[in-house]
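During the second half of the funding period, the structural biology subgroup turned its attention to how the target accommodates small molecules. The most pressing case was magnesium ion, which had performed well in the primary screen but for which no bound structure existed. We therefore specified the complex as follows and requested a full 3D prediction, including the ligand pose.
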Amino acid sequence: MEGSSGGRDLRLEGVTKAFGPYVAVDEVSLTVPSGSFFALLGPSGCGKTTTLRVVAGLERPTRGRVLLGDEDVTDTRPYKRPVNTVFQSYALFPHLDVFENVAFGLRRRRAGEVRRRVAEALDLVELGHLAKRKPAQLSGGQQQRVALARAVVNRPDVLLLDEPLGALDLKLRRQMQLELKRIQTEVGITFVHVTHDQEEAMTMADTIAVMNAGRIEQLGSPVELYESPASAYVANFLGQSNLLPGTVLERSGGTVVYEAAGARLTMPAQRCRAAGRDVLVGVRPEKVRLSVEGPPPGADSLQDAVVTDAGFTGTSTQYLVRLPSGHELTAFAQNTGIGAVLPVGARVTVSWDPAHAFALDGAQDAAAGVETLDGEPAAPAPATGPAAVPGVAGLTGSPEPPAAATADGRAR
Ligand SMILES: Nc1ncnc2c1ncn2[C@@H]1O[C@H](COP(=O)(O)OP(=O)(O)O)[C@@H](O)[C@H]1O
Ligand SMILES: [Mg+2]
């Protein structure tokens, strides 16, 4: 089955949507390349659905334009746009069987070859054998597939998916993520997938736009966003970060020399996004190494740290270590079978490869994006939280972080 997108990119130019005085979407400009899997990621209320509704034509932007290729569709009626939407609620017709649900759009458009095209769409979602069932006789996952087949059968240029897996339980959701990715690859239709689940976005999308309060905070591939976050918000929202306040001492050649937690450290110049002296230095927990003997050669290190928590999760151990400066860092150590789990109270050297550090403008709130991990408010962690250790890292250091799934997801 082939997409009909004919290579037309979806473009948003300065799209703004205000509801009265409230600006839900604020100057959003982005390009979704034809045939790509694009995710709009952000916490509840950040404007994801409104953005999708503008693309679908269900909402008129206050300012800005929506284009498909060179065609301005800002004022095109929803049903005239080559765009279909899959909602979280599926919105299947209860009185129609699976086949007729999928055939609905084709019949309304008086399209030809209904039987073949519906059969093809049902095969794609592996539901051919359930064509005669009514929606009520299907599981949640199966209903989700019908909703998908019903949209894909129309071969839209763009398929919009608004938290389509939100109603499924975790295991089924993981399965459907892989399934959706396979289907997208097979049909080649542009998918714009809205989710508040960072692991879901990372698993499926070619490109992710991280949204924060109506704006695009950063746009890039999952690897770019994860390895080189542009803001504290992105660093905290995608996975976990250790963010330490630091001061740039010297920029020479390709290297930035900085001070953090009382040590003189370095990073490649291109990893430093801050122009000023005050920075937030980030290192992902799985890049942090703890050793009792001293650091490996070539690594940047902080001496005399103490393990304050060790949580063995099977695949890895999540450590919390306190530095002499009072800062706390999280470290993940994979359970490779080499070396024992370090006990609480152990004195260790903390180290990382300088190439794995990144620096952000120090004027930001180091905790931005933390409370919205996984769309849940962060569990209060007074022992390690900002209140107990003002202005320092370790904000993500609760031993049972709300995004525990993140660590697993990352390890896969
Ligand atoms: N029709 C509307 N009238 C007023 N406010 C709205 C309307 N639709 C959405 N909003 C507000 O706009 C903000 C963004 O909403 P939405 O796009 O649904 O966010 P998300 O999908 O990211 O959770 C929310 O604060 C929401 O209350
Ligand atoms: Mg929404």
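Two results from this model are relevant to the next phase. The two ends are 31 Å apart (CA to CA). The chain has a mean pLDDT of 87.
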